[in-house]
Amino acid sequence: MSQFEAKIQIGASAEDVFDYVTDISRMPEYMPTLRKAVPAGDNKIRMQGEAGGHPYDADGWYQVHQREHTMLWGSDGPNRYSGHLEVMSQGDFCILMVGLNFEASPGMDSDFATLMEHRKVQIQEGLQRSVESIKSCCEENRAAVRKSKYSGYMS
To answer: What band does 155 get if pLDDT is binned at 50, 70 and 90?
Structure first.
């Protein structure tokens, strides 16, 4: 199994960040390989995009645990991909942690190891770009909300 993780501090509430990352329609805003994501029924998702120069159109599952501020997801196909995220409150800011897991399909161990060796830097960089994009979107949104909230006092 190959595992990847990225963590970042975000200047927004854990609730706001969690609401943002669990809105399926917003996923293409922060996932570099994803062009479209739509709910596909009970805890199912349909994703379209391109990864490693190869287009994909895949179905997957996801679970949102509001109270714990966690989300789990994975593929329904043979590629054995899964992920998890957690948003932890730290007062006026929060910490976002995202992890990805890739596991070889039965009988594909050596091919999988070669593929992961060639793609590990690309995967880690993409994951880091994703958390940085989430940070940027959430902090910009927080600033916009704060500005509109106080702009009425300037009249």
So the answer is: very low
Only one residue has tokens 């993409």, namely 126
Buried b (16+ CB within 10 A) or exposed e, 118-141: eeeeebeebbbebbeebbebbbee
Match 């966690």 to its residue by tokens: 70
Evaluate whether 63 touches 71 at the Cβ level (below 8 Å): yes
Q: Which CATH fold topology does 2-21+63-149 show?
A: Alpha-D-Glucose-1,6-Bisphosphate; Chain A, domain 4 (3.30.530)
**Where in the chain does DSSP place strands (E)?**
2-10, 34-39, 44-51, 54-65, 70-75, 81-90, 93-102
Residue 109 burial by CB count (10 A; 0-12/13-18/19+): exposed, middle or buried? exposed
pLDDT(102) > 90: no
pLDDT band at 143 (very low <50, low <70, confident <90, very high): low
Residue written as token pair 């909300």: 145
Q: Quick one: pLDDT band at residue 153, thresholds 50, 70, 90?
A: very low
